[in-house]
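I'm stuck. Please check this protein.
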Amino acid sequence: MPLDISSRFAFTLEEPSSALLQFEAATLPDQAIVDAACRITGIDHEERVPAQDGIGERVWLHGSGRIEVQYEARIKATRALHPLKNMTALPLHHLPGEAVQYLFDSRYCRSDEYQGLVDADFDGTTGGTRIAAIRDWIFGNFTYSPGVSDASTDATASFIARAGVCRDYTHVLVMLARASAIPARYVACYAAGVTPQDFHAVAQVFLADQTSGKGAWHMVDATGMADLSKAAIIGVGRDAADVSFLTSFGPMTFEYSKVDVASRA
């Protein structure tokens, strides 16, 4: 079943400056754009550039005053999901270049100091079993609470608070996966069933499956809200900073954001 997506937001650039946007679903081997339309008003210049890892596009804007973005799309995903517990971790010396950067600390995910914790709290687990245990621990111990975190909240603060939104759940999962020497990256997506409905965040971890032994990225949602087989991926990054739907490089006043996602027969 395809997803019908409606995404709208508006902001004001207080002086002539640039902004970088990432809000459109990406074209992927397991994700097709059936139909899409985008309208951006109030700008002087628009230019599209490839996003992180070549997944999706970012949009450079330049202008001043009120800017409004309207995006409508129908996306059909044909993504097969595999049980995490059947997957093993690749030996580090066999990791491909694309995965290596996702072992390291990033702006919101400082994983080095958690290596002892994951070895103690998730002792006896490895690979996909470790990731499943981390996912289930976050789901069982965190409270989904809009308003308790903001754009400055990092994974350590969320780990201590045991509360947050999808962004915070994902940052903690990414941090603990990297502390376990498993590459993990942040994924921005659209998904039905998310409450409250908004841009959604999940993780991808790089694991080997038992059949081929080759490594691949596998999606994980610590909130438990999204049907990952149908989610529409927007982009990926080291953490939320890499896939923000709006990054302003000048004084900016944000007005509103409204996202609607429905799964259609």
Residues 96 and 215 are 8 Å apart (CA to CA). The chain has a mean pLDDT of 96. The first strand starts at residue 3 and ends at 21. The chain has five helices and 13 strands.
